[in-house]
Amino acid sequence: MADKRPADAPNDALAARRGALRALDWVLKDRRMLAHFTPDPALGPADAARAQRLVLTVLRHLQPVDAVLASFLDRKPPWAPKQALRLAATELLVAGEDAHGVVDSAVALMKARPQTVRFAGFVNAVLRRVVAEGAPVFAAQPAQRLPGWIGGEVKKRFGLEALRAIEAAHAAGAPTDLTPRVPGLDLPGAQRLPTGSLRLTEGGQVSALPGYDEGAFWVQDAAAALPVRLMGDVAGKRVADLCAAPGGKTLQLAAMGAEVTALDLSEARMARVADNLARTGLSAAMVVGDVFDHQGRYDAILLDAPCSATGTIRRHPDLPFVKSAAKTETLTRLQMRMLDHALGLLAPGGRLVYCTCSLLPVEGEFQVRAALKRHAGLRVVPVDPMTLGGDPGWASPEGGLRLRPDFWAESGGMDGFYMAALEVA
Ligand SMILES: C[S@@+](CC[C@H](N)C(=O)[O-])C[C@H]1O[C@@H](n2cnc3c(N)ncnc32)[C@H](O)[C@@H]1O
Predict the structure, then answer these.
(1) Which of 111, 125, 152, 293 is 20 to 30 A from residue 349's alpha carbon, by CA?
(2) Which atom of ligand 1 is nearest to the CA of 357?
(3) How far is the CA of 337 from the centre of ligand 1 (A)?
């Protein structure tokens, strides 16, 4: 597997791998989320997409791949060759890519820079062993573990078996789900889930699907589509979507005939709500502002509060490498204050749905239980998950719904989410 190409030979796959390594540094070295990463503008869209897929795959399997590499290393490699080994070993062990192409590329990447050229032989030798002996070592590894601040809480609340199942679901990644504007829509290459979402079973661009330009559907995880279903019949009602951007739930509410006020602090993210509304031909009043400055009276309120987003690790495997427990306390205090403020905007007899895309009970179940203690007359309107097309095990003891990435694992899982409907007696 000696590299026969000159180090600077034009090679799209090589450019994508270089892009993936830059993104990997961004996450693992700089501890920043991929959502804020700008790919090299010289990369074409296909290579940028390939680089993105590669880095997500590396992050989903970093520990098991590292374990394989460790069994073939007799010394700790410096940063750059280590990342090249991680990338190439992931391609070999997880993605099942052609061994020659992967090894040649990793060697070429080492040869392309004076600082790393001396590691070309080393990388070649380690990867040859990965090719020859790595698969059974990899198969024997457990899925990537969650860091203690997430895993510990998940284990305490749901048990060790659930924690391991959630970790396996994170490693499996996430399919693309769509919410149809009109229930019952069918799309070629999409599976209709019992809750009404459409799950794409084949890859490809969502914007190329029939109906996209007309706004017949939008991308939204199956779990994220459920909080709005807890709001009851909102047709003709004044509804506030208090943390609205990028707007999946605003679209659902507008499609159900609600008179929606969509509010969010982020101007940039509200621009995405505006785009989504324009594409779908739906309408909502738009407010860029702080929940705490907002006044009014609403028949129904959706509070999709800012949270750790630990329920979305399937889609954002960079999150456990970047975020830490440090912010959780700030977020839970914010959620509590937001919930109190939002309850003050509710008209008599109105309903508020509280939700977070978090795996942490402290951002879900505990928030609702604590709110019940703070507000006399507040009650949870219990949800029967079966009425939504869900499973009985989704019900949470206080009356909300607890969704986990390992639910529906055989058909692709779902994001972790908590939601509860609240009314004041
Ligand atoms: C979980 S996301 C909302 C997702 C959205 N509901 C959807 O379905 O597309 C939380 C949002 O809360 C917004 N946010 C955070 N703090 C806020 C505040 N004090 N006032 C208003 N919006 C806030 C963030 O900008 C972010 O867009």
Answers:
(1) 293
(2) 1
(3) 14
What is the pTM assigned to this prediction?
0.94
Angle of helix 328-343 relative to helix 365-374, nearest 10 degrees, comes to 50
Distance CA 310, CA 320 (A): 8
Domain boundary among 120, 139, 158: 139
Quick one: which atom of ligand 1 is closest to the CA of 307?
1
Structural tokens at position 270? 């509200």
CATH number of the CATH domain containing 70: 1.10.940.10
pLDDT at 188: 87
| Cα distances (angstroms) measured from residue 286 to each of 34, 240, 244, 305 | 28, 10, 9, 17
**Residue 273 is part of which domain span?**
219-424
Ligand 1 pocket, 248 CB below 6 A? yes
Calculate mean pLDDT across residues 202-218.
90
What share of the chain has pLDDT > 90, as a percent?
91
C-alpha 52/C-alpha 260 separation (Å) is 35
* Cα pseudo-dihedral 155, 158, 164, 169, rounded to 10: -130
Is 357 a catalytic site residue? yes
The tally of domains found in the chain comes to 2
Burial 324-357 (b: 16+ CB within 10 A, else e): eeeebeebbebbbebbebbbebbeeebbbbbbbb
Active-site option among 243, 307, 355, 357? 357
According to DSSP, residue 395 is labeled: B
What does the DSSP 8-state code read for residue 43?
S
Q: Is 282 close to ligand 1, i.e. is its CB under 6 Å away?
A: no
C-alpha of residue 263 to centroid of ligand 1, in Å: 8
- The pick from 177, 241, 264, 345 for probing ligand 1's pocket by mutation, whose C-beta has the most ligand atoms within 8 angstroms, reads 264
